[in-house]
C-alpha cells in the first residue's frame, strides 16, 4: 500500500486529480466511483476539464435501498449533479435501489462488473472503516449484496438528510471481493474523524472488523490523506 500525505484536503485532492486525469488520458476503460463528501472536490476538478471520456464507463460502489434515482438524497442523483451531467461518459452505472427484485439487481450488477473489470476504483472510508457500504464484519469474499447500515453509518450520513429517520437502513453495495477486483485502488480520507480508521487500515493487522484493512492485500493500492486523517499514523 502506497501512502501519500498532504497538508490539507485541497493538496490531497490535487494529487488524486493528477492520478485520475493521467489514467483517463492513458485510455482507462472503466472507473469505479464513490459518493459522499470526500470526492466532491475531485469531481469538481474533473468536470472542469475537457478530458475525453467518451470511451470510459463508470461504475458506482453503492446506492441506498428505497430511494428513486430522482430523489436528491440518492447516489444516482448525486452522481448526475456532481459529474455525469457535465461529462460525456460512454455509460454510467449506479445500482438501482428501487429495483423490484433487489437480489436480482445485485446479481445483474455483479455480472456487469465481471464484464467491465474496473481499472481504477476511487474509495472513501467510513469512520468505522467501511468501504462501499461493507460494514465491519462483512466477509472479504462478499460480492454485490444488500447491506444493513450500522447505527454509526446512519449517524455519519444523517447530515445529508432532513431527519435522522429518513436515512435508509439498507443499501446495495459492491462487496469487498468486487472492490478488490479493481486493478488499481485509490483511497481518499480527509479529516480527524477518519484518523483512527486510517491508523487501523495501515498499521493494524488485516481484519474484517475494519474492512479497509483489506487494502493491505491489494497489490496496487494508493492511499491519499490529509494531515488530520494521517495524524494517528506511527
Ligand atoms: C460512498 C461510499 C462510502 C463513503 C464513506 C465516506 O459511495 O461508498 O463508503 O465513501 O462513507 O463518506 P464521506 O466521504 O462522506 O466521509
UniProtKB/TrEMBL annotation:
- Pathway this chain belongs to: Amino-sugar metabolism; N-acetylneuraminate degradation; D-fructose 6-phosphate from N-acetylneuraminate: step 5/5
Name the Pfam families on file. Glucosamine_iso (PF01182)
The active-site annotation reads: 62 (proton acceptor), 128 (for ring-opening step), 130 (proton acceptor), 135 (for ring-opening step)
Q: Which SUPFAM superfamilies did the record assign?
A: NagB/RpiA/CoA transferase-like
* GO BP: any one term: N-acetylglucosamine catabolic process
Question: GO cellular component terms?
Answer: cytoplasm
What start and end residues bound the annotated signal peptide? none
Entry EC no(s): 3.5.99.6
The residues covered by the Glucosamine/galactosamine-6-phosphate isomerase domain are 25-221
Q: Does the keyword Glycoprotein apply?
A: no
Role according to the record: Catalyzes the reversible isomerization-deamination of glucosamine 6-phosphate (GlcN6P) to form fructose 6-phosphate (Fru6P) and ammonium ion.
Recorded hits in NCBIfam families, A to Z, give: nagB (TIGR00502)
Q: This chain belongs to which protein, by name? A: Glucosamine-6-phosphate deaminase
Q: What organism does the UniProt record list as the source?
A: Siminovitchia acidinfaciens
Amino acid at each position: 500500500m502506497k501512502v501519500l500525505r498532504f497538508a490539507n484536503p485541497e493538496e490531497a485532492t490535487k494529487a488524486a486529480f493528477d492520478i485520475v486525469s493521467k489514467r483517463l488520458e492513458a485510455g482507462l476503460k472503466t472507473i469505479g466511483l464513490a459518493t459522499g463528501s470526500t470526492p466532491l472536490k475531485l469531481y469538481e476538478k474533473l468536470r472542469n476539464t475537457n478530458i475525453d471520456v467518451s470511451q470510459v464507463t463508470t461504475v458506482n460502489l453503492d446506492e441506498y435501498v428505497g430511494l428513486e434515482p430522482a430523489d436528491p438524497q440518492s447516489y444516482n442523483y448525486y452522481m448526475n449533479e456532481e459529474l455525469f451531467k457535465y461529462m460525456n461518459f460512454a455509460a454510467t452505472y449506479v445500482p438501482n435501489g428501487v429495483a423490484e427484485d433487489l437480489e436480482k439487481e445485485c446479481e445483474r450488477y455483479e455480472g456487469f462488473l465481471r464484464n467491465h473489470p474496473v481499472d481504477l476504483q476511487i474509495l472513501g472510508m467510513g469512520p468505522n472503516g467501511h468501504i462501499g457500504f461493507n460494514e465491519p464484519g462483512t466477509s472479504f469474499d462478499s460480492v454485490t449484496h444488500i447491506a444493513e447500515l450500522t447505527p454509526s453509518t446512519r449517524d455519519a450520513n444523517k447530515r445529508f438528510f432532513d431527519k435522522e429517520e429518513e436515512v435508509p437502513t439498507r443499501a446495495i453495495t459492491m462487496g469487498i471481493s468486487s472492490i478488490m477486483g479493481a486493478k488499481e485502488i485509490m483511497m481518499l480520507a480527509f479529516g480527524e474523524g477518519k484518523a483512527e480508521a486510517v491508523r487501523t487500515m495501515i498499521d493494524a493487522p488485516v481484519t474484517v472488523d475494519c474492512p479497509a484493512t483489506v487494502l493491505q492485500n491489494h497489490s496496487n493500492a494508493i492511499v491519499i490523506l490529509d494531515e488530520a486523517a494521517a495524524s494517528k499514523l506511527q
